[in-house]
Each structure stands twice: as structure tokens, then as C-alpha cells.
# Entry
Amino acid sequence: MTAFEMNFDGLVGPTHNYAGLSFGNIASQSNATAISNPKEAAKQGLQKMKALADMGYKQGILLPHERPAIGALKALGYQGSDADVLRQVGRENPALLSAISSASCMWTANAGTVSPSADTADGRVHFTAANLNAKFHRSIEHPTTTRMLQAIFHDNRHFAHHPALPAIASFGDEGAANHTRFCAQYDAPGVELFVYGKEAFNEARPAPLKFPARQTLEASQAIARLHGLGDAQCVFAQQRPETIDAGVFHNDVIAVGNGNVLFYHETAFVDPAQVLAELDAKLIGARLIPICVPTAEVSLHDAVRSYLFNSQLLSQTDGSMTLIVPAECHAIDSVAAYLTRLLADPANPIRTVQVFDLKQSMNNGGGPACLRLRVALTAAEYQAIHPGVIMTQDLYQQLNAWVDRHYRDRLVSADLADPLLLLESRTALDQLTRLTGLGNIYPFQL
# Structure
């Protein structure tokens, strides 16, 4: 195999806080106003990254964004010094202050959609930053995300970058959280599964009634065109509206795939039989292996509480797979029992389960899969990426020391209006761009 999948995890930012900003994300809303620990959150994420690197997987980092996002406030008419703006918004509109202080960019599965060079018409890896327009606090991410991706994947002989889609509901795009690629080998042509919640221009089609459908079919189709994907390389599948209304705000909360394996809950798709048949027909060089978890064994409620499917499914050298799950999967009896049965099945390609404590992220509504952006790369493409973001023992130690210097271990909503937090965050991020050698990517640096 001359290609592999590399995971780029989001490093949790200094303003990590619980504000309950994500309507439709039950964990996010349930923990609103809780006291957060940014230092612990960052270290939990770093431990997962380092563990996967030690297991032999290629691992990189994506940097936090500048928060509080003063530029977003000034674009809304707030004037004066940065400190004055923070104090005014803190008095007049604490909810807005929470939104522009969110560290949600740590969930890099939403950073964008990636199509590897084996699939695209021009033989380059294509990136489209997600507009995330369903939530204001996330809609302000894509300019920095684009600059960061362009700085890391900077060689235009190998990489192509597209701006975010128009920031309107009809083209709502949540990135790789609703996208999975299947292949026989990472360097072989694959089939890309785009999962959407509704059709924006066809109101006759079913749609959720309680929570918003954040991804549209029209957005997914646009990304496929931008990436130069042919019909034979794409499957478009609708997520069940009732499942979205149960708190499954992204497909990666109800399904995960890798190689030729799809691990999913039986309530994931509107027409699962059609989805499986089309994936299998379009997959070249291998047969699709579907692993369906029935409701009788794991209820949809328990699937959402445990984030069983918001896991990482990773290939091992012997052809088997490892499932990376949050600790909550062992704390919920039905899920723990299911995983025991799964591993006992000799016909099942998932042979091992690795458990990680990601409670700081989980309490805000994001598990292992939310924290990483998957990029399939050839050896030549890997050599062309910016090396300063590749996880090594040295970088791991440097980042832990950096977190110790700059992060607070306690943060409540009132702290967000503190001008010192803004100064601490900017100082930390400026040093981080120097540590990684990534250059000036933040608004305060530009």
C-alpha cells in the first residue's frame, strides 16, 4: 500500500467553555453553564493523538482559532478597544459573547470535506471548508479554517482548496461529519458517501420536525462537483428525520466507516438497503462489509448517550480493525455488552476496542470522531504537507508544556468578558504558530 489515512485532530482552545450553543446536540445543551477545564480538555485530546501515533497511525494537529472573535463583534457594529467591546457585550448580550468565545473548532470533523487524489479528476487532494451556517458560533470558523488548511497543505501540485459554499440554509454544509469514504486500499479509487438531512429545494421530501437538518443534499452535490467526483464515485443518502430529532445532529453520531466496513445503527438512513446496495456496487476491488447494530441491542437513546458511533474505525496491518471509543461506551450497560459480543464474533473485522477519556469534549457534544479530520495521502503527498503539525514525541512534549503555560484549569461564562482571557489566548496562539512554524493565520496576526 502506497497510501494511508492520516488523522488531524483539533487542539482544544484556551476558551473551551460550556454554553449549550448547539441546538439539536443533546450533550451540548445538557451541560450548559457547567464549569469547564480548558487545560484538562486540551490534554485529553493530546493524549489521544499521541496514543494513536504510538500505535503507528499518522497523526497531525489542527490549531485552535482566535477566541473571543473580536472581529465578529466589530462586524456587528460594536466599537472601541477590544477590552471595551468585550465588556460591553458581556453586559448587554452574554449569549453573543458565549458564541464568539466558543472553542468548537476543536471538532475538526466539521472543518471541511476531503477527497483524496485517487478519486478526483485532476489527481489532487481536494479540500472544501465547511460553511457551518446552521449555528452562528460555528459559521465564523471557515475563513481561519481555510487559511490553516492552505498553510498545512500548501503545495498546489498535490492539493486543491475551495472556499466554503454560500452561507445560506439551502447549502448548509457540516463537512466530514456527514462524509465517509470507502475503498479497497487508500491509494485505490473509492466511493464517497455523502449523508444529508434534507433536500433544500424539494419540500415534498421528509425532513426532521424538532431539530434542524444541518446538511442539505444540494450542498453535498456541490462539493462532489467541486472535487471532480464522477457519479460512479458518489452515493448520496438521507439520514432518517426521526433519528435527527432524537439528537443525531450529524451522520458521525450514528455511523462510521473505514476501508470496506460500515458500522452503523439500524436507524441511520431513510433507506438502508438501498444505501448498502449502491455502496457495494460502486466499491472497486472489495465487497462492502456492513455491521448493523439493531435497536433491540442498543437503543437509539443509548447510542446517542454513549457516542458509540462517534468513534474512529482504524485499519491494522493484519487487515483487522480497531474501534476508538469514548469511556462512556463502557459506562452504559447495553453498549458495553454489545461491544463484548462484537469482539467475540470471529467473522467480525473489528478485533479490538480502545477506550479514551474525552469527558471535557464529550460534555460539550463531541467524541473521538468529532475531534479528527481524515485525510488519505500518498507518500509523496505526505512529504508535501507542513511538517510542524505532525505529531511526534517532541511535539507532544512541547504542546503539553505550552498548555501548562497558557491554559486555565477553570472557566465559567463570566470569565469570557475578561480582557485578560483575550490577551492570554492571543499570546498562546501566537506562540503556537511559532512552535509549529505555520506562520500568521489568525486575524490578530494579519
